[in-house]
Amino acid sequence: MYGKAFAPEYQGALTTLSVNSSLVDVLAEGTERLREAERSGRPAEAARCGLAVAEAQRRLGRIEDADRAWKASYRAAREAGDTGAMAWALWSGGTLARQRGAFPLAWRLLGLAAELGERGGDVVCRGYSLAGLAETGRIQGDYEAVGRLHEQLLAEARRRGEARHTVWALEGIAQMHRNTGDHDRAYALFEEAAEIAERAEDRRGHAWALRGLADILSVRDGDTERALELLSRAEAGCRAMNLSSALAYNHKMRGNVLYRAGRYTEARDLYELALEEFRAMSEPRGEALARLGLAKSLARLGRDHAETAAELADLARTLERSGLKHAREMVARAQQEFRLDRDLDTEHDAEHGAEHGAEFDTEVAR
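RE: above sequence
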């Protein structure tokens, strides 16, 4: 049995905040409490309040402010000799690093956070930090390396009855199954995550689960309208909490659903919106995925093949450098998709000649 979801990152004087509190409200109250703690010379309290500030800034997409906030929280915790608060600050910093695409730094910070959490006896921080490591590996496409860790963390969360952590683990495992083609298993896990999140009043987890369900309904069943309906429900939750990153991923997924339905103009508009949102918050993984969707939509709307080839080749190089294996595979599939389109389009070949086709193949091979 799962209890109501709670937010362990809201600490000190901020423990009364809800997991569903608007991030704007969290930032305002966190900043006020942080200043009070600093004025009264309480570094431990400043560290705890600073953590909430850092997380609110990160989730609002204010990357530089979030970076300063988690580092200040860590310094205050170290001054106070508070090992647990140091661990939480490192967790926040590692999560931010992953969001920015700095994966080696994310591994380092989250690993240190897990160690300090265990040393300080903070079971929740240790679990969140290990979850962060698992998510980093999953995002990079190392499913074999982190699949067991996801399952382990899911079992631990179930034992403790932690709804929010259980939902996170279910969604991560579901995403791996979806990406490896087991849509039925992925749907069942996303469905369980949505049910637990809804009962536990975890809006963030519920929004991500709805997004996953919409994806499966679109790709497996071709049920465009039901998928769009679920995404609209998820968007309402994101807006209520000012979840900038989740909202951008929602818009990107809406673009995916519309693209699969052949509604390329609408898909293009959604990808452009998501791309703008990801760039505003310096989130390179989301930016790359939105760029991919936009390139495919523009190709379907008649963009020159050579321009599409150049865009996909540049995107492939970017993802190769960043270590995002699954996203890189998606670009490779897109390159193949449009090479086949070129081969089948005999009228286009006749008009532009064999030299244009060779140029396109060269771009694909890079």
